[in-house]
Amino acid sequence: MTGNFRFANWVGYMDKAPGNRFPTLERFTEETGITVEYSNGAVDDNESFYTVDLEGPLGVGEPTGWDIVVLTDWMMQRLIAKGWLEQIDTNGLVNYPANLLDQYRSRPWDPDNTYAAPWQSGMTGLGFDRAKTGDLDSLEALWDPQFAGRMTYLSEMRDTIGLSALRLGFDPAALTQDQYDQAVAEVQRAVDEGLVRQLAGNSYVDVMDLGDAVLAIAWSGDVQGLLVPDQAADQDFVWVLAREGGMIWTDNMGIPKGAQNKAQAEAWIDFYYRPEVAAVVEAWVNYVCPVKGAAEEMLRLDPALAENTFIFPTEEMRARLHEFVSVDLDTAALWEEAFNDAIGL
């Protein structure tokens, strides 16, 4: 097979080498003859990518121009419900879904794993420059006036509201309407009082890197994979799972309806699900890998990775991690609207 495909991903979500090279993508091209037009950072957050890149063309039955998009499970659920994803043809695929870890199987919105191939799982917690803030371990820091104007929250509703709910003592996995309203009100208060410098998707990393923010609602792998390697001498970036808990989520690869290079995209999915390939990606991105056998391959690459809790969360950490409650599409739309009103979007 030859040809090419276009791949939209979040920043810092593929192993990278000097010269803006992506070694795993290069290896894929060498082995298959398929070239990849890879967009590192095309996705900044789920809703903006949906609005700008997907909703318009898919709403009128036109292709998006993308052949693989990486989006979070709740967004994949929306796209499946709308009929806006191609079914992954697993006939002839050797590794997917054969090498998918059991905990990712039988998800109620994609029970046969035919629309959404898990890419990475990760955690949402506190990211901060310890040289400026000192040690932090509580979500109360996100509402602390001493950091006013030097904090960023995520524009992803489920992450920001999830942490707000945990701070109030609510379980995000079983959030009621009243609890949601209280969590939104706390976010609005933080915005109104000027505690929050900005709400952002992946671009919060740039704000932290420049020193304009010292504390963020942050994704686990971003801090270790993007901020720490480039930190200045007077910066000390760390990520912490707060004592009240944090969020856990999964991003998935999907093929938008009408994708013009579907077979090439499926070849990539099968390539990634080789344990030795996933291990190389995982060791660089510092997230939780969904590929069976990748953990063993990673430890062969670098035994020290066994101590990396971004990749291998401890049981104590897992006990404090929460998924966000699954609600119907109408409720989700109302909750997104209330969140956007609170943050001024």
Architecture overview:
The protein is an alpha/beta fold and 345 residues long. It has two domains: 3-121 and 250-311, D-Maltodextrin-Binding Protein, domain 2, CATH 3.40.190; 123-248 and 320-343, D-Maltodextrin-Binding Protein, domain 2 (3-Layer(aba) Sandwich), CATH 3.40.190.10. It is 38% helix and 19% strand. The chain is built from 13 helices and ten strands. It has helices spanning 23-32, 46-59, 73-82, 130-133, 157-167, 177-192, 204-210, 220-230, 262-272, 275-285, 294-301, 315-318, 329-343, and strands at 3-10, 34-43, 68-72, 117-129, 151-154, 196-200, 215-219, 237-240, 246-254, 321-322. Strands 1, 2, 3, 4, 5, 6, 7, 8, 9 and 10 form a ten-stranded mixed beta sheet that branches. Helix 1 links the parallel strand 1 and strand 2 (34-43). Helix 5 (157-167) crosses helix 6 and helix 10 crosses helix 11 (294-301). The radius of gyration is 20 Å and the shape is globular. The mean pLDDT is 97.
In short:
Strands 1, 2, 3, 4, 5, 6, 7, 8, 9 and 10 form a 10-stranded mixed β-sheet that branches.
What characterizes the major β-sheet?
10 strands, mixed
Tell me the strand percentage band: 15-25%
How many domains is the backbone divided into?
Answer: 2
User: What would CATH call the class of the largest domain?
Assistant: Alpha Beta
**Helix/strand class:** alpha/beta
The coarse overall form would be globular
Q: Level of helix content?
A: 25-40%
- Total count of strands: 10
Q: Find the CATH superfamily of the largest domain.
A: Periplasmic binding protein-like II
Q: What is the terminal separation in angstroms?
A: 45 Å
CATH architecture annotation of the largest domain: 3-Layer(aba) Sandwich
Order of helices and strands: EHEHEHEHEHHEHEHEEHHHHEH
Mean pLDDT, rounded to whole units?
Answer: 97
Q: Segments where pLDDT lies below 50 for 5+ residues?
A: none
- Spatial extent as radius of gyration: 20 Å
CATH fold descriptor of the largest domain: D-Maltodextrin-Binding Protein, domain 2
Number of helices: 13
